[in-house]
Amino acid sequence: MKILLLQGPNINMLGKRKEAHYGSTTMDEIHERLSERANALGCEVSFFQSNHEGALVDQVQASRDDVDAIIINPAGLTGNGYSLRDALEDSGLPFAEVHLSNIHAREPFRHHSVFTAIAVGQIAGFRWRGYIAALEMLEAQHREASE
């Protein structure tokens, strides 16, 4: 199984910003931990981060025939990333939405996600562990569908 991890705006700054919300784990450390778990599950994972919505859209479109699923942390695009949402929906790929902090326990503007209605599921508030959970859930669904 091949999985693409998409990281939205400011995720590249993890470890340097708002530790109370996001923890001290860096983006590279998250990618390393996810790679280790993916290898144990027999999966391949690729990574893409951008602070620009169009670049994320381009990556979804370029990857749609090469991956089986997507994990996305839309970050600052959560409430208004409509073109990214459309690209994900158009891809036809299952995807899991991950947030490091519990967006439902934060400011009201963070409570709404334009992605949740079309995602397989949303994992929020477990910091870096949410990525591992998303990987495991997507892998299990893929395996069960193949049986």
Reported by name, the CATH topology is: Rossmann fold
- How is the main sheet built? 5 strands, parallel
Q: What percent of residues are in strands?
A: 15-25%
Distance from first to last alpha carbon: 14 Å
Order of secondary-structure elements: EHHEHEHEEH
Question: If you had to describe this structure to a student in words, what would you say it looks like?
Answer:
With 147 residues, the chain is α/β, with parallel strands linked by helices. It contains five helices and five strands; from the N terminus they run E-H-H-E-H-E-H-E-E-H. The protein has helices at 19-22, 27-41, 53-63, 82-91, 129-146, and strands at residues 2-7, 44-49, 69-73, 95-99, 121-124. The protein is globular, with a radius of gyration of 14 Å. The mean pLDDT is 94.
Main features:
5 strands, alpha/beta, single chain, five-stranded parallel sheet, 5 helices, Rossmann fold, 147 residues
Structure, briefly:
This protein has helices at residues 19-22, 27-41, 53-63, 82-91, 129-146; strands at 2-7, 44-49, 69-73, 95-99, 121-124. It has a single domain, classed as Rossmann fold. With 147 residues, the protein is α/β, with parallel strands linked by helices.
Topology record:
Layout: E1 2-7, H1 19-22, H2 27-41, E2 44-49, H3 53-63, E3 69-73, H4 82-91, E4 95-99, E5 121-124, H5 129-146
